[in-house]
């Protein structure tokens, strides 16, 4: 009987090794994977196909600057208070369209640097941890291998076997030096979820197999390691989404085979099945090949929770558990795993002395794939890689009469990521142009990031194609916005394990991308936050001061102050990513030589900005400060 139970335990793990898909799906062909669709390096920078819906807005000049050189910079200054002609805001957004549009113009299209040749693990999951300025990267224990070993015993005992796994599957990386510190995991984090708590600790939920019902916590200290609490969740949460509420509590939605949600219990406590809420919406949005895993979930500024799955979206009251509104269907395919588009919450813009009853909040969803893309790429032989979607759609979910506003990207993209930059613009990066999520199920890497302008003056395109990386970032890629306003790029693994000889090898290199605003010719505009003269603990609605130092006379009309919550990034989803533009109450010039004080108002409540840590940026002329300052919002 011992052998029987051992086989029974190992068999699901074997199927997991074959593919990160539910193992009761139709059986896979075991023949050699097709390499169709990969046309060589020359094809990687070309535009792909896709769907078209709504007005076509494409930059006429979509050719990125050759190489990584800086552009010719021309500083232009608009009129303070000019109306924004952004069509998506023209329907009356309580003055949001009046935000300043003064910024320095540049033709610089970004530059790439290889930060680390070997990050130890392929960053399936990535989050920047506050205060300690280290990026946490981890993948899964299921493959029992990585590119870095634990420094010594104890090794992980592989459940159900006599094996010992001495590889690390989780590392902390210093974002300035690249120094790595390995962490120990016992319960599998494969395709898990997470978010930061009020003290900046990572609270991670779910995963695969023995990790599916696990809650794990990582504290912020030089010697801290994972604390794991198996059985803390009542349902398994594999490919689930975690969201932070206005009181700092967490909810976790969905997961393979569990169309439910539950609140994450306090540390050391366990949920029971009475704590689970059935969620019919996740049953209704389930295609034959899912397309509703890792739903896009964001806290609305009114305290409700916005959930998007497949092509549908609803607003849920987390207290009554009632769906209070359903929005129109978003056309042109599926957007969630394995169709795997990406989404972000657009900047929340606050006025000085904010008194609006409802603060507008918009979601931006870009890319995705046809509903049958996974079936064609993973289950059919020979493989067929359908073109991804090339549209982006915006929706203000604080309005019950909202409709999707659809624009067309310069190229198709799935498996991508969307990083909200300190200025409020969005960097669309990583991913492929054809195929689906899954092992070896995508082709044509989309190497060119695209800048989406959150606001424009009504002229030109909302999209700008930026300089490409030379490293394909496909399935399981990730990012983190850094305090110096660069963007960390990592991950990519289309293989069930660590393979160096695959079409797209398992990627452990870590890059940094410098967006357009880091044009060396704009360096004169970068301010320095004087942290010791600034308030870094905030209370809701209260005034606080940030002191800055820079060259020349500062024009208040060209200042923008934003707060950014670092997201938990995995599978094209950025959980709890949030950027808030603060209202400037006062600007006190020359409190010391070349030094100025900015008096600001903290967000009014936790529905606008959940309690916890944020990176505070001061942008001048559209150029972020030299380094952000960590601030903590307390209830």
UniProtKB/TrEMBL annotation:
Q: Which InterPro entries match?
A: Gal_Oxase/kelch_b-propeller, Gal_Oxidase_central_sf, Glyoxal_oxidase_N, GO-like_E_set, Ig-like_fold, Ig_E-set
What CDD domains has UniProt attached to this entry? E_set_GO_C
Q: What is the top-level taxon of the source organism?
A: Eukaryota
- Extent of the signal sequence: 1-20
Sorted alphabetically, the keyword list is: Signal
Note the Gene3D superfamilies from the entry: Galactose oxidase/kelch, beta-propeller, Immunoglobulins
**UniProt key word rRNA-binding:** no
* Domain Glyoxal oxidase N-terminal positions: 124-517
SUPFAM superfamilies, alphabetically?
A: E set domains, Galactose oxidase, central domain
Show the Pfam families listed in the entry: Glyoxal_oxid_N (PF07250), GO-like_E_set (PF09118)
Q: Which residues form the Galactose oxidase-like Early set domain?
A: 535-633
Put simply, this protein is called: Galactose oxidase-like Early set domain-containing protein
- According to its UniProt entry, this protein's organism is Gossypium tomentosum (Hawaiian cotton)
């Amino acid at each position: 009987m011992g052998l029987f139970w051992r086989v029974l335990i190992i068999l699901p793990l074997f199927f997991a090794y074959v593919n990160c898909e539910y193992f009761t799906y139709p059986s896979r062909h075991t023949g050699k994977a097709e390499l169709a669709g990969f046309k060589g390096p020359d094809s990687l920078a070309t535009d792909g196909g896709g769907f078209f819906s709504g007005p076509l807005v494409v930059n006429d000049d979509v050719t990125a600057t050759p190489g990584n050189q800086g552009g010719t910079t021309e500083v232009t200054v608009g009129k303070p208070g000019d109306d924004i002609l952004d069509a998506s805001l023209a329907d009356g957004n309580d003055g949001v369209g009046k935000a300043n549009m003064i910024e320095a113009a540049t033709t610089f299209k970004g530059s790439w640097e290889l930060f680390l040749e070997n990050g130890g693990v392929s960053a399936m999951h990535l989050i920047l941890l506050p205060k300690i300025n280290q990026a946490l990267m981890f993948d899964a224990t299921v493959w029992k291998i990585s590119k870095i070993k634990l420094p010594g015993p104890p090794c992980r005992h592989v459940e159900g076997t006599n094996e010992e796994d001495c590889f690390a599957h989780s590392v902390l990386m210093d974002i300035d030096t690249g120094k790595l510190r390995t962490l120990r995991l016992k319960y599998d984090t494969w395709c898990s979820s997470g978010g930061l708590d009020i003290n900046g600790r990572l609270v991670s939920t779910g995963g695969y197999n023995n990790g599916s019902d696990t809650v794990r916590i990582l504290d912020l200290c030089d010697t801290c390691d994972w604390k794991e609490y198996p059985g803390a969740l009542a349902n398994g949460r594999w490919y689930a989404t975690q969201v932070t509420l206005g009181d700092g509590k967490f909810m976790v939605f969905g997961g393979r085979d569990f169309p439910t949600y539950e609140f994450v219990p306090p540390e050391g406590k366990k949920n029971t099945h009475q704590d689970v809420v059935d969620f019919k919406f996740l049953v209704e949005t389930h295609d034959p090949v899912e397309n509703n895993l890792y739903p896009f979930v964001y806290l609305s500024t009114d305290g409700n929770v916005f959930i998007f799955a497949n092509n549908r979206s609803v607003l849920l009251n987390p207290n009554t558990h009632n769906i209070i509104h359903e929005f129109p269907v978003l056309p042109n395919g599926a957007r969630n795993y394995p169709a795997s588009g990406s989404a972000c919450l657009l900047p929340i813009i606050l006025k000085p002395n904010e008194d609006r009853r409802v603060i507008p909040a918009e979601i931006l969803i870009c890319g995705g794939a046809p509903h049958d893309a996974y079936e064609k790429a993973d289950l059919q032989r020979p493989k067929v890689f359908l073109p991804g979607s090339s549209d982006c759609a915006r929706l203000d979910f604080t309005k019950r009469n909202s409709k999707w506003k659809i624009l067309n990207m310069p190229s198709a993209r799935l498996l991508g990521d969307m990083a909200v930059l300190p200025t409020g613009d969005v960097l669309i990066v990583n991913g492929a142009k054809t195929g689906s999520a899954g092992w070896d199920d995508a082709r044509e890497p989309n190497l060119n990031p695209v800048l989406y302008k959150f606001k424009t003056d009504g002229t030109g395109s909302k999209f700008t194609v930026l300089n490409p990386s030379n490293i394909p970032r496909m399935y399981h890629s990730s990012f983190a916005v850094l305090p110096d306003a660069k963007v960390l790029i990592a991950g990519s693994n289309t293989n069930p394990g660590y393979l160096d000889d695959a079409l797209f090898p398992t990627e452990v290199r870590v890059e940094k991308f410098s967006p357009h605003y880091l044009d060396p010719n704009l360096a004169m505009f970068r301010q320095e936050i004087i942290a010791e003269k600034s308030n870094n603990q905030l209370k809701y609605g209260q005034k606080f001061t940030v002191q800055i130092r820079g060259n020349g006379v500062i024009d208040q009309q060209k200042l923008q102050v934003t707060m950014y919550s670092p997201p938990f990034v995995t599978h094209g989803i950025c959980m709890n990513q949030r950027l808030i533009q603060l209202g400037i109450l006062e600007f006190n010039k020359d409190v010391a030589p070349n030094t100025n004080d900015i008096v600001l108002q903290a967000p009014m409540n936790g529905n606008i900005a959940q309690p916890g840590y944020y990176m505070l940026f001061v942008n001048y002329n559209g150029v972020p400060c030299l380094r952000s300052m960590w601030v903590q919002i307390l209830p």
